[in-house]
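ok so for the tutorial part 2 we go from a plain amino acid sequence to predicted structure tokens. step 1 is just haveing the sequence, like this:
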Amino acid sequence: MIKSDVFKQSLLTLLPEVFGVTDAPHGYILDNGQAGLLGTLDQVDAATASARLRPSNETAASHTNHVLFIVNLHNAFERGERPEADWAGSWTNQVVDEAAWDRLRADLRAAYTTVISRLEQRQEWPDDGVDAYIMLVAHCAYHLGEIKQILTSLKT
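step 2 — the prediction. this is what the tokens look like for a chain of 156 residues:
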């Protein structure tokens, strides 16, 4: 059986890395602590975030909006809510101007801060709580990879 303080500390290491908000020079998943979602997105302008490789492809902005949806859904469940999940709607934000891009990144940063705050307060780890946090790390890391692939492909 895993000790809850060990599990919590692991999450408090991995989530900041996946979100790119740590100054760690090396990571468990990424090269460094700024290579994650917010660290990467902070280096992208709205035009790049809205660019498509092909007409049918998602944009970095749409992946970011989807990640925000996932984090907000996670936070709702942490508060004991059981909202109806609009998966299709989480992909609607394809193109953003600078103001919308700034808002989207700020909203993601605020939602991430809520995740960390709730995590720091958590004392018990029922199975669904463990599953939810593991899913959050994995799902956000997956979309980080998708965003990095889009950004790399746009440069070539």
